[in-house]
Amino acid sequence: MSSPHHALASSSDAPDAADPVKLADMWSVSGQLLHTEAYRRTHARLLAEAIGHREQKILDAACGMGFPMRELHDLGFTNLCGSDADPDLIAKFRALLAAAPATAQWRPRLMVATWQELPQRLPETFDVVLNVDAAIGFMDSWLPGEMRVGSTRIFARVVAVLRNFHAVTAPGGRFFIGLQKNNHKGNSFYPMHVGRMSIDGVPAEAQWDMTYDWTRRIKTWVNTVRIDDRAFSQTRQSYLFDLAELGDFLLAAGFAHVERLPTPDDLYEDILIAHRGDEAA
Ligand SMILES: C[S@@+](CC[C@H](N)C(=O)[O-])C[C@H]1O[C@@H](n2cnc3c(N)ncnc32)[C@H](O)[C@@H]1O
Protein backbone atom coordinates (compact mmCIF):
# COMPACT_ATOMS: atom_id res chain seq x y z
CA MET A 1 0.00 0.00 0.00
CA SER A 2 1.30 3.45 -0.83
CA SER A 3 2.12 5.57 2.19
CA PRO A 4 -0.38 8.29 3.16
CA HIS A 5 2.25 10.92 2.31
CA HIS A 6 2.56 9.44 -1.14
CA ALA A 7 -1.20 9.11 -1.60
CA LEU A 8 -1.86 12.76 -0.79
CA ALA A 9 1.55 14.13 -1.77
CA SER A 10 0.43 16.36 -4.62
CA SER A 11 -2.62 17.64 -2.77
CA SER A 12 -2.99 20.80 -0.76
CA ASP A 13 -5.33 21.59 2.09
CA ALA A 14 -6.81 24.52 0.22
CA PRO A 15 -10.53 25.21 0.67
CA ASP A 16 -13.03 22.78 -0.80
CA ALA A 17 -13.98 25.10 -3.68
CA ALA A 18 -10.81 24.13 -5.47
CA ASP A 19 -11.24 20.55 -4.23
CA PRO A 20 -7.65 19.63 -5.10
CA VAL A 21 -7.56 16.36 -3.18
CA LYS A 22 -8.67 13.32 -5.14
CA LEU A 23 -11.30 11.32 -3.34
CA ALA A 24 -9.49 8.12 -4.32
CA ASP A 25 -6.44 9.36 -2.38
CA MET A 26 -8.52 10.37 0.64
CA TRP A 27 -10.19 6.96 0.52
CA SER A 28 -6.89 5.12 0.17
CA VAL A 29 -5.99 6.49 3.63
CA SER A 30 -9.37 6.44 5.40
CA GLY A 31 -10.16 3.02 3.90
CA GLN A 32 -7.05 1.62 5.57
CA LEU A 33 -8.03 3.19 8.90
CA LEU A 34 -11.58 1.87 8.67
CA HIS A 35 -10.72 -1.59 7.40
CA THR A 36 -8.51 -2.86 10.17
CA GLU A 37 -7.51 -6.48 9.87
CA ALA A 38 -10.12 -7.45 12.46
CA TYR A 39 -12.83 -5.52 10.60
CA ARG A 40 -11.98 -7.17 7.28
CA ARG A 41 -11.87 -10.62 8.84
CA THR A 42 -15.21 -10.28 10.64
CA HIS A 43 -16.92 -8.80 7.59
CA ALA A 44 -15.58 -11.30 5.07
CA ARG A 45 -16.39 -14.32 7.26
CA LEU A 46 -19.95 -13.10 7.64
CA LEU A 47 -20.29 -12.71 3.88
CA ALA A 48 -18.57 -16.02 3.18
CA GLU A 49 -20.95 -17.87 5.46
CA ALA A 50 -23.98 -16.24 3.83
CA ILE A 51 -22.70 -16.82 0.28
CA GLY A 52 -21.87 -20.49 0.82
CA HIS A 53 -20.41 -22.46 -2.09
CA ARG A 54 -16.96 -21.23 -3.05
CA GLU A 55 -17.49 -21.83 -6.80
CA GLN A 56 -20.32 -19.32 -7.22
CA LYS A 57 -19.78 -16.60 -9.78
CA ILE A 58 -19.44 -13.35 -7.84
CA LEU A 59 -19.30 -9.70 -8.92
CA ASP A 60 -18.20 -7.00 -6.49
CA ALA A 61 -19.70 -3.95 -8.19
CA ALA A 62 -17.97 -1.45 -5.86
CA CYS A 63 -14.66 -3.26 -5.56
CA GLY A 64 -12.53 -0.12 -5.10
CA MET A 65 -9.18 -1.17 -3.62
CA GLY A 66 -10.35 -4.75 -3.17
CA PHE A 67 -12.21 -5.12 0.10
CA PRO A 68 -13.86 -7.64 0.45
CA MET A 69 -12.74 -9.33 -2.81
CA ARG A 70 -9.24 -10.02 -1.50
CA GLU A 71 -10.58 -11.48 1.72
CA LEU A 72 -13.09 -13.67 -0.14
CA HIS A 73 -10.27 -14.92 -2.33
CA ASP A 74 -8.31 -15.79 0.85
CA LEU A 75 -11.38 -17.68 2.08
CA GLY A 76 -11.39 -19.89 -1.02
CA PHE A 77 -13.80 -18.19 -3.44
CA THR A 78 -12.56 -18.95 -6.94
CA ASN A 79 -14.80 -17.03 -9.35
CA LEU A 80 -14.52 -13.36 -8.43
CA CYS A 81 -14.88 -10.37 -10.72
CA GLY A 82 -14.76 -6.68 -9.74
CA SER A 83 -16.04 -3.42 -11.15
CA ASP A 84 -15.88 0.16 -9.94
CA ALA A 85 -16.31 3.64 -11.36
CA ASP A 86 -12.94 4.84 -10.14
CA PRO A 87 -9.95 3.77 -12.27
CA ASP A 88 -7.48 5.07 -9.64
CA LEU A 89 -8.90 2.71 -7.01
CA ILE A 90 -8.80 -0.23 -9.43
CA ALA A 91 -5.15 0.60 -10.12
CA LYS A 92 -4.48 0.61 -6.36
CA PHE A 93 -6.27 -2.76 -6.11
CA ARG A 94 -4.01 -4.25 -8.80
CA ALA A 95 -0.93 -2.81 -7.09
CA LEU A 96 -1.98 -4.36 -3.76
CA LEU A 97 -2.40 -7.77 -5.39
CA ALA A 98 0.98 -7.55 -7.09
CA ALA A 99 2.71 -6.50 -3.85
CA ALA A 100 1.51 -9.46 -1.75
CA PRO A 101 3.14 -12.85 -2.39
CA ALA A 102 -0.15 -14.66 -1.70
CA THR A 103 -1.96 -12.77 -4.47
CA ALA A 104 0.83 -11.85 -6.90
CA GLN A 105 -0.30 -14.59 -9.30
CA TRP A 106 -4.02 -13.84 -8.96
CA ARG A 107 -5.39 -11.85 -11.91
CA PRO A 108 -9.10 -11.28 -11.27
CA ARG A 109 -11.15 -9.64 -13.99
CA LEU A 110 -11.46 -5.97 -12.93
CA MET A 111 -13.23 -3.35 -14.95
CA VAL A 112 -14.08 0.31 -14.76
CA ALA A 113 -17.88 0.58 -14.89
CA THR A 114 -20.46 2.73 -13.18
CA TRP A 115 -23.60 1.23 -11.67
CA GLN A 116 -25.57 3.33 -14.16
CA GLU A 117 -24.00 1.49 -17.12
CA LEU A 118 -23.50 -1.93 -15.54
CA PRO A 119 -25.78 -4.11 -17.75
CA GLN A 120 -24.29 -2.58 -20.91
CA ARG A 121 -20.70 -2.98 -19.73
CA LEU A 122 -21.27 -6.45 -18.26
CA PRO A 123 -23.88 -8.23 -20.37
CA GLU A 124 -23.85 -11.38 -18.23
CA THR A 125 -25.23 -12.48 -14.87
CA PHE A 126 -23.70 -13.52 -11.56
CA ASP A 127 -24.88 -15.86 -8.80
CA VAL A 128 -23.94 -13.22 -6.25
CA VAL A 129 -23.60 -9.47 -6.76
CA LEU A 130 -22.07 -7.37 -3.99
CA ASN A 131 -22.46 -3.68 -3.32
CA VAL A 132 -21.22 -3.57 0.24
CA ASP A 133 -18.96 -1.31 2.31
CA ALA A 134 -21.91 1.13 2.36
CA ALA A 135 -21.05 2.14 -1.21
CA ILE A 136 -24.65 2.95 -2.23
CA GLY A 137 -24.59 5.73 0.38
CA PHE A 138 -22.05 7.55 -1.81
CA MET A 139 -24.13 7.42 -4.97
CA ASP A 140 -23.69 10.51 -7.17
CA SER A 141 -21.29 11.97 -4.63
CA TRP A 142 -18.20 9.94 -5.46
CA LEU A 143 -18.10 10.95 -9.10
CA PRO A 144 -18.55 14.54 -10.11
CA GLY A 145 -21.93 14.90 -11.75
CA GLU A 146 -25.34 16.29 -11.33
CA MET A 147 -27.14 15.23 -8.20
CA ARG A 148 -30.90 14.77 -8.30
CA VAL A 149 -32.98 17.19 -6.24
CA GLY A 150 -36.17 16.28 -4.36
CA SER A 151 -37.19 12.98 -2.82
CA THR A 152 -39.18 11.74 -5.85
CA ARG A 153 -36.25 12.19 -8.24
CA ILE A 154 -33.73 10.89 -5.72
CA PHE A 155 -35.72 7.71 -5.01
CA ALA A 156 -36.28 7.11 -8.75
CA ARG A 157 -32.55 7.51 -9.32
CA VAL A 158 -31.73 4.92 -6.65
CA VAL A 159 -34.35 2.44 -7.93
CA ALA A 160 -33.00 2.79 -11.49
CA VAL A 161 -29.53 1.78 -10.29
CA LEU A 162 -30.94 -1.11 -8.24
CA ARG A 163 -32.68 -2.33 -11.42
CA ASN A 164 -29.23 -2.54 -13.00
CA PHE A 165 -28.02 -4.70 -10.11
CA HIS A 166 -31.11 -6.85 -10.59
CA ALA A 167 -30.23 -7.21 -14.30
CA VAL A 168 -26.74 -8.57 -13.56
CA THR A 169 -27.99 -10.94 -10.82
CA ALA A 170 -28.75 -14.40 -12.23
CA PRO A 171 -32.28 -15.80 -11.83
CA GLY A 172 -32.28 -17.42 -8.40
CA GLY A 173 -29.21 -15.35 -7.46
CA ARG A 174 -28.66 -12.85 -4.68
CA PHE A 175 -27.67 -9.22 -4.39
CA PHE A 176 -25.96 -8.07 -1.16
CA ILE A 177 -26.16 -4.38 -0.37
CA GLY A 178 -24.77 -2.46 2.62
CA LEU A 179 -26.00 0.79 4.12
CA GLN A 180 -24.29 2.80 6.87
CA LYS A 181 -25.90 2.03 10.23
CA ASN A 182 -26.01 5.71 11.10
CA ASN A 183 -28.39 6.39 8.14
CA HIS A 184 -31.45 6.23 10.35
CA LYS A 185 -34.14 8.78 10.89
CA GLY A 186 -33.20 9.41 14.53
CA ASN A 187 -29.94 10.99 13.36
CA SER A 188 -29.45 14.60 12.32
CA PHE A 189 -25.69 14.66 12.93
CA TYR A 190 -23.22 11.83 13.37
CA PRO A 191 -19.52 12.38 14.03
CA MET A 192 -17.64 9.20 13.15
CA HIS A 193 -14.07 8.70 14.19
CA VAL A 194 -12.87 6.48 11.37
CA GLY A 195 -9.60 5.50 12.98
CA ARG A 196 -6.06 6.42 13.89
CA MET A 197 -2.94 4.41 13.21
CA SER A 198 0.55 4.63 11.91
CA ILE A 199 0.67 3.78 8.21
CA ASP A 200 4.19 3.02 6.98
CA GLY A 201 5.52 4.88 10.03
CA VAL A 202 3.41 8.00 9.43
CA PRO A 203 0.66 8.90 11.94
CA ALA A 204 -2.69 9.08 10.16
CA GLU A 205 -6.19 9.80 11.43
CA ALA A 206 -9.59 10.29 9.81
CA GLN A 207 -12.90 11.75 10.92
CA TRP A 208 -16.21 11.79 9.02
CA ASP A 209 -18.82 14.30 10.18
CA MET A 210 -22.21 13.58 8.68
CA THR A 211 -25.26 15.87 8.75
CA TYR A 212 -28.62 14.40 7.75
CA ASP A 213 -31.34 16.48 6.14
CA TRP A 214 -34.27 14.09 6.05
CA THR A 215 -36.56 16.65 4.42
CA ARG A 216 -34.28 17.21 1.43
CA ARG A 217 -32.98 13.61 1.59
CA ILE A 218 -29.42 14.85 1.47
CA LYS A 219 -26.51 13.76 3.65
CA THR A 220 -23.55 16.15 3.91
CA TRP A 221 -20.31 14.36 4.60
CA VAL A 222 -17.20 16.23 5.78
CA ASN A 223 -14.25 13.92 5.34
CA THR A 224 -11.10 14.98 7.19
CA VAL A 225 -7.83 13.10 6.98
CA ARG A 226 -4.85 14.15 9.13
CA ILE A 227 -1.38 13.01 8.18
CA ASP A 228 1.42 14.10 10.47
CA ASP A 229 0.48 17.71 11.13
CA ARG A 230 -1.40 18.35 7.86
CA ALA A 231 -5.18 18.20 7.51
CA PHE A 232 -6.99 17.48 4.25
CA SER A 233 -10.71 18.05 4.13
CA GLN A 234 -13.46 17.46 1.62
CA THR A 235 -17.20 17.97 1.73
CA ARG A 236 -19.52 15.80 -0.33
CA GLN A 237 -23.28 15.37 -0.46
CA SER A 238 -25.16 12.17 -1.10
CA TYR A 239 -28.69 10.81 -1.02
CA LEU A 240 -30.38 9.87 2.21
CA PHE A 241 -32.69 6.90 2.82
CA ASP A 242 -32.93 4.38 5.62
CA LEU A 243 -32.78 0.60 5.66
CA ALA A 244 -36.56 0.06 5.45
CA GLU A 245 -36.72 2.37 2.44
CA LEU A 246 -33.81 0.57 0.81
CA GLY A 247 -35.75 -2.69 1.25
CA ASP A 248 -38.76 -1.13 -0.52
CA PHE A 249 -36.53 0.18 -3.33
CA LEU A 250 -35.13 -3.33 -3.87
CA LEU A 251 -38.64 -4.73 -4.27
CA ALA A 252 -39.54 -1.87 -6.63
CA ALA A 253 -36.44 -2.75 -8.66
CA GLY A 254 -37.78 -6.26 -9.24
CA PHE A 255 -36.22 -8.43 -6.53
CA ALA A 256 -38.57 -11.12 -5.27
CA HIS A 257 -37.82 -10.78 -1.57
CA VAL A 258 -35.37 -9.16 0.79
CA GLU A 259 -33.85 -10.39 4.03
CA ARG A 260 -31.51 -8.80 6.51
CA LEU A 261 -28.07 -10.21 7.21
CA PRO A 262 -27.45 -9.19 10.83
CA THR A 263 -24.07 -7.54 11.35
CA PRO A 264 -22.28 -7.03 14.69
CA ASP A 265 -22.18 -3.50 16.18
CA ASP A 266 -18.56 -2.95 15.22
CA LEU A 267 -19.33 -3.24 11.49
CA TYR A 268 -20.47 0.16 10.30
CA GLU A 269 -23.01 -1.13 7.80
CA ASP A 270 -26.27 -3.05 7.80
CA ILE A 271 -26.56 -5.58 4.97
CA LEU A 272 -29.67 -6.58 3.04
CA ILE A 273 -29.79 -9.66 0.80
CA ALA A 274 -32.16 -9.24 -2.15
CA HIS A 275 -33.21 -12.45 -3.90
CA ARG A 276 -33.87 -12.50 -7.61
CA GLY A 277 -36.74 -14.79 -8.54
CA ASP A 278 -36.22 -17.89 -10.65
CA GLU A 279 -37.69 -16.28 -13.77
CA ALA A 280 -35.67 -16.39 -16.98
CA ALA A 281 -33.09 -13.61 -17.33
C1 LIG B 1 -16.94 3.25 0.37
S1 LIG B 1 -16.08 2.96 -1.11
C2 LIG B 1 -15.89 1.22 -1.03
C3 LIG B 1 -14.61 0.79 -1.66
C4 LIG B 1 -14.14 -0.65 -1.57
N1 LIG B 1 -14.88 -1.50 -0.69
C5 LIG B 1 -12.65 -0.67 -1.27
O1 LIG B 1 -12.16 -1.61 -0.71
O2 LIG B 1 -11.95 0.28 -1.61
C6 LIG B 1 -17.34 3.17 -2.33
C7 LIG B 1 -16.96 2.71 -3.73
O3 LIG B 1 -18.08 2.90 -4.59
C8 LIG B 1 -17.60 3.34 -5.86
N2 LIG B 1 -18.69 4.07 -6.52
C9 LIG B 1 -19.34 5.17 -6.10
N3 LIG B 1 -20.28 5.53 -6.97
C10 LIG B 1 -20.23 4.62 -7.99
C11 LIG B 1 -20.98 4.45 -9.19
N4 LIG B 1 -21.95 5.26 -9.52
N5 LIG B 1 -20.65 3.41 -9.97
C12 LIG B 1 -19.66 2.53 -9.63
N6 LIG B 1 -18.92 2.66 -8.51
C13 LIG B 1 -19.20 3.69 -7.70
C14 LIG B 1 -16.42 4.24 -5.52
O4 LIG B 1 -15.56 4.41 -6.62
C15 LIG B 1 -15.79 3.49 -4.36
O5 LIG B 1 -14.82 2.58 -4.77
The poorly predicted ranges are 9-19
CATH topology: Rossmann fold
Say which molecules are bound, naming each kind only once. Answer: S-adenosylmethionine
Q: Find the CATH superfamily.
A: Vaccinia Virus protein VP39
Order of helices and strands: HHHEHEHEHEHEEEEEHEE
The percent of residues in helical segments reads 25-40%
Set out the fold topology:
Elements: H1 4-7, H2 23-34, H3 37-51, E1 58-60, H4 69-74, E2 80-84, H5 87-99, E3 109-112, H6 118-121, E4 126-131, H7 151-168, E5 169-180, E6 189-199, E7 202-213, E8 218-227, E9 230-239, H8 243-252, E10 257-261, E11 269-275
Bound molecules: S-adenosylmethionine.
Task: Give a quick rundown of the structure.
The protein is an alpha/beta fold. The chain is 29% helix and 30% strand.
Give the tags:
281 residues; alpha/beta; Rossmann fold; seven-stranded mixed β-sheet; binds S-adenosylmethionine
What does this structure look like?
- With 281 residues, the chain is of the alpha/beta class.
- The protein has one domain (4-275): 3-Layer(aba) Sandwich (Rossmann fold).
- It contains eight helices and eleven strands.
- The protein is globular, with a radius of gyration of 18 Å.
- It binds S-adenosylmethionine.
- The site of S-adenosylmethionine has 20 residues, from loops.
